[in-house]
Write a structure and sequence with these properties.
- This protein has 2 domains: 160 residues, Intergrase catalytic core (hpI Integrase, Chain A, Orthogonal Bundle), CATH 1.10.443; 45 residues.
- The protein has 12 helices and 2 strands; from the N terminus they run ααααββαααααααα.
- Helix 1 runs antiparallel to helix 2 and helix 2 runs antiparallel to helix 5.
Length: 241
Amino acid sequence: MKQIKTDKIKVVEPIRDKLDLKRIVAWFEKHNARKYAVLFIFGINSGLRVSDLLGFDVGDVYHQKFVVLREQKTGKYKKFPLKDDVQEILNDFCKNRAHDEPLFMGRCGSRLDRSQVYRFLCQACDDLGIEANVGTHTMRKTFGYHHYKQFKDVALLQAIFNHSSPEVTKRYIGITQDEITNSYLHLNLETSSEDLKAIKDSLKGRTKIKKIISYVRGYIKAGGTRHQAFAEDILDIAGVA
């Protein structure tokens, strides 16, 4: 049979294990890549696209309890609060910096590029043995995945992500794939003990009926006439007359 070649599709995934989130941050810190650690923390706690994260200036987040922005992709207005621990990390990161300076600086004083984010995040996960397919959307998907796991409110998450339907949201954050995977792993093709008993009882009943039919046929074949009408009724009821 001729084999059909298929291209391997790489779907960007969330980081599902919370311990791995801490390990990634620690890896960035260990490799003197603090800006990537801050970016990662900000990303998984906000659910923003990487393009919006990289578009912030220092003054947009420094000593701000709420973050306000207009999403680059959709043009929609967005406002959300910063948790105290995230706010503290951002304030420390922004300390003694000009308010109009890009929050995340790249090479030669320019704004950090998403390709650099992709490269560092992939390197961190590769070194740590994290097998998820990561990309620049991983931070946004990670936020969504753990938000859903905690609150189980797909409608709320749909509103946060501005998605067209709950199904789109679940598929985007990997929940749909989790459900599909779980169904494969827990599909039970073994016969339960209750079903086996029912089958056994059914077979016993069929065996008894076959014995009765055989006996009645033998009676008629032998020329029995006294109960012939009754015997024929039995065969008719059994559907073999």
